[in-house]
Every structure is written in C-alpha cells, then in structure tokens.
User: Fold this.
Amino acid sequence: MLPQLSTNSNTNEVKITLKEITDLISAEHNKAMKVVEKLSQEPSFGRVEKLATHQNMPNGGTKPLQTYQLNKKQAIAVGAKLNNALLMKVIDRLEELERKRAYQLPQSFADALRLAADLEETNQKLIAQNNEMMPKALFADSVAQSHTSILIGQFAKAISNEEFTIGQNRLFTWLRDNKYLIKGGVRHNQPMQKYIDNGYFEVIERTTNNPDGSVRINITTKITGKGQVALTDKIVSYFNTKEVA
Assistant:
C-alpha cells in the first residue's frame, strides 16, 4: 500500500526531508523509505509529501533521488524507528528549523499576507482565551480575599462583578437544586450533612428566650473559605455552560 501523499501542506509547519534525517543519523535511505511507507499505513501518522532531491556521489557528482518530506511528528516517529539512540540529533535539527522560521521575514507579498493572517488568528484566539479566563480570575480574586465563613447572601455579593451577577435568592435556588442545601421540611435551606462534614459549610445555632418562657432556636448557615473556593468554580462552570447552550 502506497503512502497517502499530501497535496495541500501547511506552509507554516516546519518540514524536514527524509534524506536529511538519514544523513543526520547515518541511516540507509532506501530502508528509511520503506519505514515511512509502513508507518504511513497508520491513519495517525498522517499524510506525507514525496519530492525530488539529489544525492551526492563519491566522484563529486550528483544523482536524482526521490524522498519524503515530513512534519515534526512524522520525523520524530521515523527517527525513532531508524536509530533511537541518535533521535536527539533529529529533534535538535527540528528545533533549529523552528527557531529559524520564527525569525524568518516574509519573502513575498503572499507570504506577508499569510503571516498577517496567522498573527491575526493567533491574536483572536488569545483574546478569546483571555475573555474566557477573566471571569474565573475575578471570581478567584474575590474568594481569595475572604478567609472567614460568610453568609450565603454575602457570598452572592462577593462573587458578583461586571462579568457575572447573582443574587441571594438565585444562589439559594442553585444550592438547593444541586443538593448542597436541603429543600423543604424543618431543615429547609440548611446544608446537607456531607457538606458540613467536608468543611464547605458551618451551621451556627443560637437560642433566644421568648417572653412566654419558651426557647427559640435560630439556625444560621455560613459558607467556609473552602466552600467558597469550591462552589465559586462550580457556579462559574454551570452558568458559563448554560449561557453557551
């Protein structure tokens, strides 16, 4: 089975010829060609390009030679098959080519346009990543400044900012729906026992004497620092996913 030949290569990807690899690691080129042909039968290896080059002869002349042009991943795979002990020579050469490409100025108007397009694409990706991470960073900063247990209403205010706002009632609903707080009954809005045990919440009980001599128990639920960090991340993930959907 012949290798899958690539007809539409990425001009920004570092490439190296099989001939250069075999020269680096003193491998037989014909044997290396068969290695590439075998590896190329695996879909994960990807497409390869065949090109014409030349081979220097002992008498000082040259003769035509068919070889393959490989990307970085393919070159490392082939080098490991041919001579794993000298693989670092191939990797060093690939890194050298990458450094040269990084500082290479466009040689034509078409190259300049491609470079500008690539830079714009990279810039847009970085902007998108920054916009995605900013709310999480703001949330984390807000929580990091709180080292004590706070009321759920205070927590709602602490994690609200320009990117995201959540009120106390909405937060209570989310905590009940996600089974952090109990829904209904005499323990309505109190935390589940397992989240008290793992340190997310603490429950404070206070007794108040009524005029008729009876005693009233007031229960207050607070979120600990550990709970604030854990729940903030979950809230951000939930509402970001919901907005995208």
User: Anything to note?
Assistant: Strands lie at 15-17, 49-56, 62-71, 150-151, 201-209, 215-223. Residues 131 and 212 are 59 Å apart (CA to CA). DSSP finds nine helices and six strands in the chain.
